[in-house]
Design goal:
Layout: H1 2-11, H2 14-20, H3 23-26, H4 35-38, H5 48-63, E1 65-66, H6 81-89, E2 91-92, H7 94-107, E3 112-118, E4 125-126, E5 132-133, E6 140-148, E7 151-155, H8 171-191, H9 195-214, H10 220-243, H11 245-286, H12 294-303, H13 305-315, H14 327-332, H15 339-356, H16 364-384
Parallel strand pairs: 1-2
Antiparallel strand pairs: 3-6, 4-5, 6-7
Helix pairs in contact: 2-7, 5-7, 6-7, 8-11, 9-10, 10-11, 11-12, 13-16, 15-16
Amino acid sequence: WAAERRRRAREIPARIAEYARRPEVSGVDAQDRPLATLRSADEYVTPLDEQIAASIERHLRTTFAYTLDLTGEKKDDERDPNEQFLYDWKKGHCEYFASSMVLMCQSLGIEARMVTGFKVTGDDYDGTYGNYYIVRQSHAHAWVEVLTQNGWRSFDPTSGNEAGGGHGRNTWKSVKNFFNWLEYKWAEKVVAYDGERRDNLIANIDRSMVNAALNTDINPNRISRHMRRGWRDWIERFTQWLNDGTGLMFSARIIMAIIGVLVAVLCYGVYALVRQRLRIRRRAARIGLDGLPPGEAMRLARQLGFYERLMNLLERRRIVRPDHLTPAEFTDDLSFLPNEAFHTIRRLTNVFYSIRYGRRQLDHEEQRNLETTVDELEPLLNTAVPLY
């Protein structure tokens, strides 16, 4: 294994190995010593391998951006694509993230391999109608497995910083789940309903009738023949009813009613989606994001809802940020407010900057906590700034 590892390391571009040895990439210990220099090259697996892999994963997830569109990036055929990904592009799809992490780990003597498959999340689970996961080709994904002292462990270095991203269960998702469920039921109950299933259905009904007759004093053979004849007569009458005008009219009314309900639900879902996007676009323009690419502006606007709420809260008290002041300069001018309110606004502004310029990603819990902080600020402003 030592010879194979050395051969593999020689094939890795030198700049990728150099990138992996950066302290901010592979991590440092408690004494700020780079972990890459502490790992022994003579050992197959070391206690540091898992820690180094986690550091590389964290670096890629927080520093790089996910995108499927690299048309604007200049590609050099004489350089390794992973080297360009690490040094030039700083963005790419999951295969770039995974393959780059594998090469960096292997350059440090760590056993690593790339795995491909499908990745689904809780947003892809339909618990309302069918209790199943929806797996599409777009869920194709690549990640990394690293050999640690506890066996192979999975790492997913792909960044969540995706332009136009946004997750969560909304009205549009519920509408899509409903149509997916209808498609599934149509395939299961209609498309796959063949002659064998129909015969099995009739046989099961006959069997149930015979079992019921066995518990009585009536001859089961006579009951079975009688019930079978009655069941087939009922099917013939039902078919005849569908073939005449009354049955067709009744069926058409049911179908039209179902279609009407589905159209109404779809229209409401589209209306809610458009309304939400318009609200986010107004927020983006309000907090100075309208100059960014549309996808990036929408992503940041979803994250910065707490800051819009803060601006609304201040404006209701006639504290308005002038256009020529940056958020930080505007915050400094609020020193006349009570000390607690002033420092709370300063902290919220710092979070604004970390998201706007520092690529910080807030989860739903953090967003709710920030909005709660803004709500708790209101009583302080009520006592300090009178409403006119």
